[in-house]
Amino acid sequence: MDNRLCETIERIIAQYDLLANESRFTENKIYGKELYAISDEGLSNHSSAIKSNGTYVITGGLGGLGYIFSTYIAKKYQSRLILLGRSELSKESEMKITELRGYGSQVTYYACDVCDFNKVDQVVRNIGEITGIIHCAGIINQTSIMSDNMTEIEAVIAPKLYGTMNLDIATKDHDLDFIVLFSSISAIVGDYGCVSYASANKFMDEFSNLREELRKRHKRNGKQSVLTGHYGIMVVCSYQMAIFL
Ligand SMILES: NC(=O)c1ccc[n+]([C@@H]2O[C@H](COP(=O)([O-])OP(=O)(O)OC[C@H]3O[C@@H](n4cnc5c(N)ncnc54)[C@H](OP(=O)(O)O)[C@@H]3O)[C@@H](O)[C@H]2O)c1
User: Fold this and answer.
1) Which chain regions cross the lipid bilayer (predicted)?
2) What is the architecture, at CATH level 2, of domain 112-245?
3) What whole-number distance in Å separates Cα of residue 58 and Cα of residue 70?
4) Is the pTM of this model over 0.85?
């Protein structure tokens, strides 16, 4: 791991003064994680966290999953959508935005790399008050741990690690209803040697735990949720769910 990453991880631990453990042993009991399925019925018993007059930031909002969520919110809630991606707008993405606006939502796109704090901060200041964040920006890359290509490894880790922290810090004083981080099942079961992707997603899972602790201490607002997916199947694993359906 290069020095920059090591320093960042040390900074995170120091800054948040917390470390969430996979399992722990207290008072003669072992506590661990448990996965369980949520039934359709369970989902339908929850009310939606999305509001019609809300402002929602969706990073990677023109990508595969991001666009599915953007479309869903645009169609059902006619909210204000702020979409982020690194690329400048292409003809194809302009058409996607036109389609979203056609559902009655106000849509703005910013070419903004979520790994760059100054850019994220600038966008957040431009937007004003934010109701919710859906962090879908990510790069799915199968770089093996045997590869010594640090550029590829960092490219996978950066949007999930720096991106998550930048969004969190830039919006720490906002009255957010929720922040949803798009993780992956690889955070739980590993990724057959693709350690960078699995670790980046694991970071998001643990970050959610840390942020929840900060929320309890009134240092952050809003629920946090991690969506863990595999080949299009998304699973919610969180302290408190932000339900969209
Ligand atoms: N698809 C699945 O089945 C699946 C399963 C498990 C987990 N996930 C997770 O879900 C997330 C979205 O997946 P996807 O399938 O929708 O991926 P995708 O289609 O490749 O979309 C990713 C989006 O993120 C944007 N992006 C990447 N790096 C960025 C950065 N540094 N700053 C701002 N935007 C950035 C890309 O736009 P630009 O290129 O313009 O930046 C793109 O629009 C990922 O985090 C992935 O790990 C997906």
Assistant:
1) 54-74, 225-244
2) 3-Layer(aba) Sandwich (3.40)
3) 7
4) no
